[in-house]
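Q: Hi! First time doing this. I have a protein sequence and I read that you can turn it into a structure. Is that right? Here it is:
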Amino acid sequence: MIIAVIGGGAAGFFSAITCAEVNQNNKVIILEKTDKLLAKVKVSGGGRCNVTNACKSIEDFTSNYPRGKELLQGAFKTFSNKNTIEWFEKRNVKLKTEPDGRMFPLSDNSQTIINCLMAEATKHNIEIRTKFSVESIEKKEGKFYIISSNHSAPLIADKVIIATGGYPQPHHYNWLQKLDLQIIPPVPSLFTFNILNSPLKDLMGVSHPAVVNILQTNYSYKGPLLITHWGVSGPAVLKLSAFAARELADKKYLFDVQINWLADQPEISESDLKNIREQNGKKLVRNVIPFSLPKRLWELFCTQAEVREFENWAELGNKKLQLLFSYIKKYKLSASGKTTFKEEFVTCGGISLININEKTLEAKHIKGLYFAGEALDIDGITGGFNFQAAWTTGYIAGRNCAGD
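A: Yes, that's right. Below is the predicted 3D structure, encoded as structure tokens:
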């Protein structure tokens, strides 16, 4: 049986390897439209490859997926992060866990993961064809005819796994819509917020735990926030962007955010700042930094509240104190755009899960057509969750596709 896997990324390789491993009689062919294999694996995690996450339970794990959570709750019972760890360790690739739960190869080099996947593909005699751009798929008399824009003759396969990853533009899905698949229009996920003329721009590089809230919505996220020269970034912003991806796209990325810089100290109130004033009367306001705030951030707040350079705490009136506390707890910024990182681009949208048998990942109306990875309307936040979805869906699609 000939099985074609469209897409040479993480999900494509994992589904192909699983398919060949489960049934050695299968002839598995990976079709990749570019000349680069496993490109996202190469660049992810700053070139280290964030393979998965060490979340202890399926419930904790699935809470990190803005879309696809319900499907993954069942899928992780078949192939979880624990299975991923075991899979790589059996192939002499040990993973390590960082304090925030992210897991990387001990080598801290994504090439280790690439080498492992390539070795498994070679071991199972998987054929890899690069620069094979799929234009359309037709099913006739039980066979799939895969038509390429740069190959004269179609590739004929018995089964197909689509693992193309997420496309940034709706028209890229046209060839799939011809198969009567419902497509959720893609929009970016995991992006930073651009702040035009940001009052924070001179603090580039400052990072601090924060709760970031998108005003006039129910979206908020707690985590490290990083100030950049174009706005704000860091895990709190990236994760927030994922959950709010669809709504922010509808807003054309024009929205207001509110930052609470006391993410780890929720009990602090304005009276605590008044106590600091009482205890430090003769000291300069700018020299007594409250609540472990970054020094440069506190100095900026003082400047914005018009605290004089040599003003001491005893001279600080209630109006300025209240203004300072509002900056600490409710700092408002107006976003006017986003910045995405093309190498690690993640989309919200794709092939609607309504098309899919959630247990097998086979198309409901086309027998022999399977799906894996970000081609589906599944996406996670940063932290190894998107790769785990790729390994899990790749394993399930590959295993079910391998049968008769």
